[in-house]
Amino acid sequence: MLKGFKDFLLRGNIVDLAVAVVIGTAFTALVASFTSSFINPLLAAFGGANSANGLGFKIFSDNPKTLIDVGGFINQVITFAITAAVVYFFIVVPMKKVNEMRDRGTEPEPEGVSEDIALLREIRDSLAQRPGGTPPGGTGGL
């Protein structure tokens, strides 16, 4: 039982997954920093110069917990879009190309005709040589 667990842990998949999680977490922090440093101020500017809420509003002006932060939501959408685009263009697309190149090199060479087909063709040819020229009830095409 422990040997199976050890094999599972030492397989390449689990190590690759661990590296991906660490890099993904670091990259998410980087994108979040970018959006909070550059995108948030731009969104807050659209909220108006006198607005302390940026691109948002309070349902009840005397209750700060009723703030609807539209800018924060737009910020999260932009963060997601940037992260997804970078993952797609820098990880998914290159891996597809690598897999395609690897698959091209490992295509099995077409073998000759299988034994079943060769035997069926032999039967067809022998039947075609009978008097009458075609196999009984057949069109001669196999």
From TrEMBL:
Q: SUPFAM superfamilies, per this entry?
A: Gated mechanosensitive channel
Its chief place of residence is: membrane
What residue ranges are annotated as transmembrane?
Answer: 12-34, 73-93
Question: Known Pfam families for this protein?
Answer: MscL
PROSITE patterns xref list: MSCL
Q: What domain of life does the UniProt record list for this protein's source?
A: Bacteria
Q: Name where it's found.
A: Cell membrane
Question: What are the protein's UniProt keywords?
Answer: Cell membrane, Ion channel, Ion transport, Membrane, Transmembrane, Transmembrane helix, Transport
Give the membrane topology: Multi-pass membrane protein
* Family, similarity comment: Belongs to the MscL family.
Its quaternary structure?
A: Homopentamer.
As for what it does, the entry says: Channel that opens in response to stretch forces in the membrane lipid bilayer. May participate in the regulation of osmotic pressure changes within the cell.
* Record PANTHER family: LARGE-CONDUCTANCE MECHANOSENSITIVE CHANNEL, MECHANOSENSITIVE CHANNEL MSCL
What's the protein called, per UniProt?
A: Large-conductance mechanosensitive channel
Identify the species of origin.
Answer: Aeromicrobium wangtongii
